[in-house]
Amino acid sequence: xxxxxxxxxxxxxxxxxxxxxxxxxxxxxxxxxxxxxxxxxxxxxxxxxxxxxxxxxxxxxxxxxxxxxxxxxxxxxxxxxxxxxxxxxxxxxxxxxxxxxxxxxxxxxxxxxxxxxxxxxxxxxxxxxxxxxxxx
Length: 136
What we know:
This protein is mainly alpha-helical. It is 79% helix and 0% strand.
């Protein structure tokens, strides 16, 4: 799981680097598409949920899982920070809260998806717009 998260964080970093001059709307649209594609890979989302549930039941496992999860949240905070800095944005919420929300949405959306819901891409795009302070 940790390897998968780090691979995906690197992919997101590359998107941010490659689109640094494309403007914030193009950047967040590309990120939303990428995150939506990841969320459609249900095995990762379900594994993350299983690990979280196991951490609630097993305090020894929780210690190592919490440490790993902290690393993921830190990496997501750095991603959000790089978007904010490269696009010269002022976020309405602290970067770490935006990162925690994005991480939770990424792994949780699969469990909440209903047939009549908006496409995942639209949900990610809406979240990014609001969290980054660029809602139109």
